[in-house]
Design brief:
The protein has about 475 residues and is α+β, with helices and mostly antiparallel strands. Among the domains are: about 5-90, Uridine Diphospho-n-acetylenolpyruvylglucosamine Reductase, domain 2 (2-Layer Sandwich); about 100-215, 2-Layer Sandwich (Uridine Diphospho-n-acetylenolpyruvylglucosamine Reductase, domain 3), CATH 3.30.465; about 220-330, Alpha-Beta Plaits. The chain has 16 helices and 18 strands. It has a 7-stranded antiparallel beta sheet, sandwiched between helices. A 5-stranded antiparallel beta sheet has the order 5-6-10-8-9.
Length: about 475
Amino acid sequence: MTATLRSFLNALRRTVGDEQVLTDPADCWAYGYDNSRRHRPPDAVVFATDHEQVVALVRLCRAERVALTARGRGTGTGGGSVPLRGGVVLSFERMNRILDIDPVNRAITVEPGVTNQAVQDALAAHGYFWPPDPTSAAYCTVGGNLALNAGGPRAVKYGATRENVLGLRAVTGAGDAIRTGSYTTKGAVGYDLTRLLIGSEGTLAIITEAVLKLTPLPEARRTLRATYASVANAAAAVARIMAQPVTPCALEFLDAGAIDMIRHYGKAELPEGVGALLMIEVDGPRAALDAEAEAIARAAHGPGVRTVETARDADAARALWSTRKALSPALRTVAPNKLNEDVVVPVSRIAELIGGLDRISREAGIPIVNFGHAGNGNIHVNLLYDSQDPTQAANARPAVDRVFDLVLSLGGTLSGEHGIGREKRDYLARAIDPPTLDLMRRIKAEFDPDGILNPDKVLPPADTPTP
């Protein structure tokens, strides 16, 4: 350990307390990864317990030009919480309090380390929920949801994180404590910095507190499952469903590869010869729900439909959703080396996307399984390559390049809810024109003048060649 590093670590302990700092490499190791499989251990881990400690920590790191990476639980897939330059990881696992629940004003104030599930459990007692519902809700933190603008199945009706936050408390890379937004659901004062910080992956400021906007729990739900002969038939059904007045609260899509995987590795029963499957859920007042479910079912019927089933009770609904829930364990079993890209295209072009992905799969010799949130065109593209197969290993990244080109050619975008992080950083210039990207760099420099906050993420350096 150099004298400079030793001096900085001593200052770190004085700032937040010795019991809130880890420096042993063995202790720090676990804080250097996320679900992208990237890994770089930090030099130190800090467990802040309040806003003032975060302010002091940012100011110390800025003074010493030390990289500072905020971290929730490491469930992200884009490498966003991996400390690529070492430095300090700020773990929010001890800032996990629910500070206030205000049912009258439909608001809850929380610290960033509280889990999504803890928020949902606390709100359920008051008859409310917070709409973002990523698959990792039991483990991921609200801070992580804010960093990535997380969504989930319910986003099709209720919006993603950005549409469900009233205001934030944060610390910029300059060490300035700021508040954004308001406690009211309407506000038109100044620039919308709340929406700017949400999805910025900790590169502009570190969020220390959030006021979340609540939604009343629906009185009842209905779950439907529809199967189709082809992806084109299912995509046409998605367009019909989204065009009629009843908006589903979930509209999930699985292609033939995903269905075959479930059939072989799960216990769900599916008819043979199915090319695509939709999981549909509608919620609302119990008195109106039967009519709304029937409207959805009518829209789901059409050319190529094989079956449309409606669950009439909770057990039947769980049986239908078992199809979707069987998929992730199956993917882990089959392809430990899979690449998961969450892309978005206009709903009307889902069939073209899946057709293009099928061509890429055949030409690269890599199985590709697709599923996701069809109601807003957010498809999770899983390239199931074998790192021990030289041909597949060599073709995997070029195949990802082709996937992104395909998505952009269809008027889509590179990420719907997983963020950019490091994994997609160098592709950003394909999706954003140079003047806009330059403006983003200037915004970054204004918030974080010395570039200490989560460096090397989201924005590619100006001289980075496009892959």
